Amino acid sequence: MPRAERWLEGTFWRRARLEGNDVGYTSILASGPHATTLHWWRNNGPTLTGQLLLADMGVETDELYTADVTRTLPIDGRYTPDQLRIYRAVYEAQSAGIAEVKAGADFLAAHRAAMWVLADYLHSWGILPVTADVSCADDPEHPGAGLHRRYTLHATSHMLGIDVHDCALARREVSTRGTLVKGHVLTVEPGLYFQVNDRTVPSELRGIGVRIEDDIAVTDGEPVNLSASLPATQQRSPPGWPTCKGASAGP
Fold first, then answer.
1. CATH superfamily, with its number, for domain 4-225
2. Looking at the whole model, is its pTM more than 0.85?
3. Alpha helices, H only, the chain
4. In the chain, where are the structural domains located?
5. What percent of the chain has pLDDT over 90?
């Protein structure tokens, strides 16, 4: 369907206005290679069989708090093996990040955990020339440090509340360099983005972008996923995972 991204954007906006106050921010509907653009805002592309759709959207409630959720879905209902390989890596990275969201942890703990997982996958696929320990080294001057960022593009978390980036004007020592406390809500949203012209990436992976994002509340115990009712896995074969064209069952 030509310009189907805009049809989906408009459909979501209508439901957000009906069931809430509005959208929380300009929706991102990025199909195919558009998903490799971090903040794709044009939403003017078609949706084609065999491609993925990255949908980053959130409803602002009548109380003016906003959600911020991303799901990456196959347009024809089934992932190819290469798409599923990337999806599973991002899902594992997100799970590692969510596990670090707890009172007393520092804000960047989720980011560090998620980036290590993605860097480890990139190295195992032969894309990253250094190990995860090297690429994720705390010392930015360390040779090879930060090479994974070419494919991950952004930080893993931001605070969420009345504003979608709440509060982006806070002092660093109480936000990105601060400590999580009960009542904080933040996103956990790692992603992998392989540009169509990036020759450091195998040709079969170019043009694929995957992000999974959930809204996580900090408690005195385990983190609470506020967006868990929007499934990121599928409860059919293979168990707990999206279905895949040409792939055998199992993780």
1. Creatinase/methionine aminopeptidase superfamily (3.90.230.10)
2. yes
3. 4-19, 81-99, 109-124, 132-135, 149-152
4. 4-225
5. 85
